[in-house]
Specification:
alpha/beta, globular, 23% helix, Rossmann fold
């Protein structure tokens, strides 16, 4: 097999140049890998998706343990390669899935079927791809996300971690007042889940515990073929069953 390198798309965005490329990895028997770059920074790779999938799996499992096991209305913040959203959509209990991403090019990749997950998120009638600022929508005055219907779960995968943001303007979301505004859009007993590239942050867990109950920080371990060892991400979960006064 000849080595493959193909830039599938490149576009200028308000956050910088974003590109999607496909390449074969000679160190892994020329396995095809899809990668997204923003400027010079690698954002995501199809080689490492376990934690993104676990964000949906663990979040929905905990939601069901709280008594919600059908007709679920789920919001995913951040589209990327689509693994969190596709995993959620595979659950028959999910009735409605809205995926909010600020990058129109990323939405177009899914609509055009350029990614390993194909166009499933664009064609499944339960799924809706929305171009917009998740953080603004999550803290807006509406009772729900873009409407007045509360949701059962919010699964967020945008920033690298609660303290390492894709854009500096995202920083304001990771404070108690903003989390409360988002929590008000989730049903009682619903779930909030967050992906992080870093190990659990005690300070952020404490912040979540001021807004949510039964807060967990779960380390997701997966093989790293480049190091021959193990890498980790974190999934944070919190149940919306406790309220504090807004700051």
């Amino acid at each position: 097999m000849q080595p493959v390198f193909e830039e599938l798309d490149w576009q200028q965005t308000p956050m910088g140049e974003i590109s999607l490329r496909k390449r074969s990895e000679p160190r892994l028997d020329n396995q095809l890998i899809f990668e997204v770059k923003l400027g010079d920074e690698f954002l995501m790779s199809s080689l490492f998706v376990e934690a993104e999938q676990q964000l949906a799996t663990l979040g929905l499992e905990k939601l069901k343990s709280n008594g919600y096991d059908r007709d679920l209305n789920v919001v995913v913040g951040g589209l990327g390669l689509g693994y969190t959203a596709v995993t959620a959509l595979r659950d028959d209990a999910v009735q409605s899935l809205r995926i909010i991403d600020v990058m129109q090019p990323v939405i177009d990749w899914h609509r055009d079927g350029l990614l390993p997950v194909g166009d499933v998120l664009a064609v499944d009638p339960r799924s809706q791809l929305i171009q917009g600022d998740f953080f603004a929508i999550a803290t807006a005055d509406t009772a729900g996300f873009l409407d007045n219907e509360k949701v059962h779960a919010v699964l967020l995968d945008i920033d690298h971690s609660p303290s390492h943001w894709l854009d500096e303007t995202n920083q304001g979301f990771y404070r108690q007042s903003s989390l409360i505004r988002m929590a008000d859009k989730i049903v009682d007993g619903g779930e909030y889940g967050l992906w992080s590239n870093e190990l659990p942050d005690t300070q952020f867990s404490d912040l979540l515990a001021a807004v949510f109950s039964d807060v967990e920080s779960i380390i997701v371990r997966f093989s790293n073929p480049y190091t021959g060892g193990e890498s980790t991400n974190t999934v944070y979960l919190g149940t919306n069953s406790r309220r504090v006064k807004q700051e």
